[in-house]
Amino acid sequence: MISSDIIRGHIDTIILKLLSERDMYGYELANEIKTRTSNQFDIKEATLYSVVQRLESRELISSYTGEKTHGGQRRYYKITPLGKAYYRETIAEWKVLQDIMRAIMGDDIR
Amino acid sequence: MNKIKKFVSKLLKGYFNEQDKRELIDILSTSLQEKVDDLVEQGTPVDAAISRSIQEFGSTDDVLQAFPGQKSELRQNLVSKRRSNFLFSLFGYAVIVGLSLFINLWFKSFFGDFLWFVVVAIGALFWPGAMFYLYRSVKK
Questions:
Q1: Surface of B (94-123) touching A: CB under 8 A
Q2: Are residues B75 and B103 in the same domain?
Q3: Do B62 and A8 meet the contact criterion of CB atoms below 8 Å apart?
Q4: pLDDT digits (tens, 9 = 90+) for B26-61
Q5: ipTM here
Q6: Which strand ranges, in their side-by-side order, compose the sheet holding A24-25?
Q7: How far is A102 from chain B, CA to nearest CA, in Å?
Q8: What CATH code is carried by the domain that includes residue A98?
Q9: Domain-terminating residue out of B23, B42, B64
């Protein structure tokens, strides 16, 4: 299981990526991360939802209230055009970083 | 929902400005409630679902991890706020004890040799004591 220290700087990008695929509610995001990483990434919900609040206050994502199947309501999050642009920028940076690491580490990380 | 909101409010106590705190409490409580609802839908009893959700949620430090640039600033603000509270309590304590001592001695003819201000001085110690404990708990 990878500690959140190493991956902390990328939580924003992970959330934006997931929301660019479809709108999700908070706990759904937490579950999706667990499922996709086969429980390898142990992110505390307290951290995840706080990042969501930060992204929303920076207008990278927005929220709306949606109905759930058995009555009641859920707060769904949606990526904004600003969020999409930010995500693309981060991916570009990520690729540069990847190239640099590959150039230095060579076969060790292939 | 009340139990959840109380838990979240306690978690954020002393951190963030009022608006950020309100938004955070709103988002964290809603997300926690959604988890409880999902667990209940899957057959977990309500009380067990609430306890489990709260237990798995994380700590104040986990919340602060979401604000890496502000983490030390937020902590520093809390430390200085608690220090001011402690200093104020010391001042308040001195005023209370001083006033008691004055009344006790000024009206000596009425109170006789009974030095009741000592009782006040010991009783009022809880105030700076509690403030010092709170200050120490965040200063570590």
A1: none
A2: yes
A3: no
A4: 889 999 998 998 899 889 999 999 999 999 999 888
A5: 0.77
A6: A24-25, A73-79, A61-67
A7: 27
A8: 1.10.10.10
A9: B64
Please give the distance of CA A19 from its chain centroid, rounded to a whole number: 8
- Chain A residues touching B19 at Cβ < 8 A: none
Distance of residue B13 Cα from the nearest chain A Cα, in angstroms: 14
Range of the domain at B34: 2-64
User: Which of A33, A45, A64 is the best mutation test for B, with the most CBs of B within 10 A?
Assistant: A45
A-B contacts (CB, under 8 Å): 79
Cβ contact B58–A44 (<8 Å): yes
Q: What span, in angstroms and rounded, lies between the C-alpha atoms of B8 and B10?
A: 5
DSSP line for B119-135: HHHHHTTHHHHHHHHHH
Q: Confirm whether pTM is higher than 0.90.
A: no
Residues B24 and B52 placed together within one structural domain of the fold: yes
| Number of CB atoms found within 10 A of residue A67's CB | 10
**Where residue B17 falls among pLDDT bands split at 50, 70, 90?**
confident
Which residue among A30, A46, A75 sits closest to B30, beta carbon to beta carbon?
A75
Q: Do B85 and B118 reside in the same domain of the chain?
A: yes
Report whether B33 contacts B8 (CB < 8 A): no
